[in-house]
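Summary for the lay section of the report: proteins are chains of building blocks that fold into shapes. Here we show the chain for Serine/threonine-protein phosphatase 4 regulatory subunit 3 and then a coded description of the shape we predicted for it.
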Amino acid sequence: MSDTRRRVKVYTLNEDRQWDDRGTGHVSSTFVERLKGVSLLVRAESDGSLLLESKISPNTVYQKQQDTLIVWSEADNYDLALSFQEKAGCDEIWEKICQVQRRDPALDITQDPIDESEEERFEEIAETSHLVELPPCELSRLEEIADLVTSVLSSPIRREKLALALMSECYIKKLLGLFRECEDLDNREGLHHLYEIVRGVLFLNKAALFEVMFSDDCIMDVVGCLEYDPALVQPKRHREFLTKTAKFKEVIPITDSELRQKIHQTYRVQYIQDIILPTPSVFEENFLSTLTSFIFFNKVEIVSMLQEDEKFLTEVFAQLTDEATEDSKRRELVNFVKEFCAFSQTLQPQNRDAFFKTLANLGILPALEIVMGMDDMQVRAAATDIFSYLVEFSPSMVREFVMQEPQQTDDDVLLINVVIKQMICDSDPELGGAVQLMGLLRTLIDPENMLASTNKTEKTEFLGFFYKYCMHVLTAPLLANTAHDKNSKDVQEGSTKINPVCPDNFQTAQLLALILELLTFCVEHHTYHIKTYIMNKDLLRRVLVLMNSKHTFLALCALRFMRRIIGLKDEYYNRYIIKGNLFEPVINALLDNGTRYNLLNSAIIELFEFIKVEDIKSLIAHIVDNFYKALESIEYVQTFKGLKGRYEQEKDRQSQRLNRYRRDARSLDEDEELWFNDDDDDDDDGETVEKRMEDDFSDSYGKYIEAKKGAANGANGANNNGKVAAIPPASPAITPNNSSASSVKTVALPATPVVKTALVGLVDYPDDEDEEEDEEEEEEQSPRKRPRLSS
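The coded shape description reads as follows.
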């Protein structure tokens, strides 16, 4: 198993036509009794588990590509590939496959892929007829060659035979020689035919042909042929771009000539696929799948070769972080790292893990702190792209680095603050960079991707760090643009109406909208930290200033922020809203909107509809008490009448509950007599029970008499424990300024204090005991408030 010749990577082609790495192991070909045939087995080198078990079927088409690849399809849309570490191992397995299928190992394909619909059509073709007869490679026969190449594309078997013919006669190099001759003669007709021929050969989708066409000797002539599209009046100048405009920059000299050649080849082939070739039609979309695979494996090889060159990467990061490095040089280094990270996206998860860990060990994050703070726009943009790759790969790695940074007095040097400042200072009128950075920040502060271990919780530590060192930087533009004008004559004492410095600048409004989107995300996902921050900074009041903005999208962002807060149905938030009278700017915006039926109108009404449907009593009472007169004229929806109805229902319910506890003297005497009768009925319960009830009676009756005296004298009643509970004649719960304390603030209380403990010692109703316990619990939870009468 230690033989490197048999060491392979197993790949499968996914739905997006991208190769997925299934693991690395060692391949063997053995007879498997269960499958009843010789099969390819790949066992993982890590634990020996079976990565692949594939029977070599006589009818399966196997292809050998690039000397170290074997590719085949096992079922519809299920393609497999083995990538060998060494060519010798590939050749060995290829011989086994050809031996089972009785094919010539010298060929790069084991058999012709014949569609079922074509089987009968080609039944009479002799087995020895492997090649399509090509016309002589001459200028006068170019039209005939072009017609032949175009005609075979619809037939898989003829495509295979043409590919074999082109390879066996070195036909490609002869055609490219004719191209140079046509260009010298300015033979446009011949050049147009060559365009059709080369395009058709690419659509044959054969790796062996690509190896020839994309070699250093041929690739520029192939590009030249593709310049002469017959549909164009003037030919394109792709070769001029590739040789003169596109410059290969070596930030650090690459000494490996094979690596250098592979980079050049990959760039040019990618250019052919993306720029030169037209977008394939529905019928042609699979014609270039091998070309995509060719580029993919080239990129994997480039990244692997660079990663293995320790001196190269070490030198890159040393110069990147060196203060003496010139800005132009640092710009090139950053662009190189960006391209390097982009190439790494072709790697499979385990390889990408190793790649980014290598970058982290080399100091990629400290380097980003330096370059993201530079004035050069291109450098900052490239650094942002690198940062996005890192955050996408591992948010935890970035968070760990940030929390390990030395806590200097100046918070501006922290990486996250550098990112926030770059977001705030984005000079793009459309804030493209700011939008990207906002998304990255949201990923970093998302608790869903935070890890929890036995010793520590990443969520707790990082959020505590973020709110302490970074939150003030994020909210600074919001607080600066929503400052109160304290000297305004329009502001009346005790009024919450403000004269704000509301941003009219579109770019500023967009920035504030992004910040609000992030804060709204925090409200949904950070319960404790954001709640504390909102209360300490009175943040919701500042945000609601933006309801006055002329930019409707910004007003909607402010409203959405409040809607998320109310959606939590947290009484702590509700009391904060009521105390600050924070519905006023929302209702003013609704009234100022007038009869316009727009998104702002609908969003505000939905806010009140939510409060009504969820029956948030404290908010309903506050809204009806303070704003119903202004809202009762809105009748095109029933939301506000529904709020009033809810309010009246709650008021009636509280009155009924209040009356239930009020007993006159006669009812108290009747209850007392009933209690004595019940006591007589229970004499046969035994001496122990009788003694206990006598004690209860003595205790309760004493309390009852004390309560009656207290009621007659207007004194405070005694509680169940015999202790005096002072109930003030005017509780703060019913004062207009403290409407948040109770949802029944408008219920008229009797002049005589309600004596809860007068019930003790009277009729022992079970439901009265439950209600009494509920009342006691509410008193214990809120000793400073009047006992709530609601259930």
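Put simply, here is one thing we learned. The chain has a mean pLDDT of 77.
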